[in-house]
Write a structure and sequence with these properties.
- The two termini are about 35 Å apart.
- The protein has helices at about 10-40, 50-70, 125-130; strands spanning about 5-10, 75, 90-95, 100-105, 120, 135-140, 145-155.
- By secondary structure, the protein is an alpha/beta fold.
- The protein has 2 domains: about 5-75, Helix Hairpins (Orthogonal Bundle), CATH 1.10.287.180; about 90-155, Transcription elongation factor, GreA/GreB, C-terminal domain (Chitinase A, domain 3, Roll), CATH 3.10.50.30.
- It has 3 helices and 7 strands, in the order E-H-H-E-E-E-E-H-E-E.
- Helices cover about 40% and strands about 25% of the residues.
Length: about 160
């Protein structure tokens, strides 16, 4: 089965690579040490420290696997490209009636952080904005209803 592409900015790619290195070179050995220490305490059948360390090991190995899959299937987002349409990587300024303008960068879901102005291309707003240009009004279907958003600037 083909893996879904993971859209990453250069900064997002660097952060995921650093996180993978951290889990492989720091967390994995720490957890192995915890498991070894817990085994030395004797019977592991009723050893809470051993159980906790094994659960942590499962989490760490799962995260490593997830990060490796993401890094094997990433598509680099070119930042600063010129376009008259919203694409992944675009910085777009929008306004909704009666609200102050907001600026967002459209990124892949792995880097989405709405509080930092980074919205996923898979979010309702991100999907609605894609391939539209300055001056256009788009309808965004949200759980709270339909919102009309106007694009006022695009970088």
């Amino acid at each position: 089965m083909a893996q879904k592409a993971v859209f990453l900015t250069p900064d997002g790619l660097r952060k995921l690579q650093e996180e993978l290195e951290y889990y492989k070179n720091v967390r994995r050995p720490e957890v192995a040490t915890r498991i070894h220490s817990a085994k030395e305490e004797g019977d592991v059948t009723e050893n809470a420290e051993y159980d906790d360390a094994k659960n942590e090991q499962a989490f760490v190995e799962g995260r490593i696997l997830t990060l490796e899959q993401m890094l094997n299937n990433y598509v680099l987002i070119e930042e600063g490209g010129t376009s008259d349409r919203v694409t992944i990587g675009s910085k777009v300024t929008i306004v909704e009636d009666g609200e102050p303008p907001e600026t967002f960068q459209i990124v892949g879901s792995a880097e989405a952080d709405p509080a930092s102005g980074r919205i996923s291309n898979e979010s309702p707003l991100g999907k609605a904005l894609l391939m539209h240009g300055v001056g256009e009004t788009v309808q965004v279907h949200t759980p709270g209803g339909v919102r009309n958003i106007r694009i006022i600037a695009l970088e």
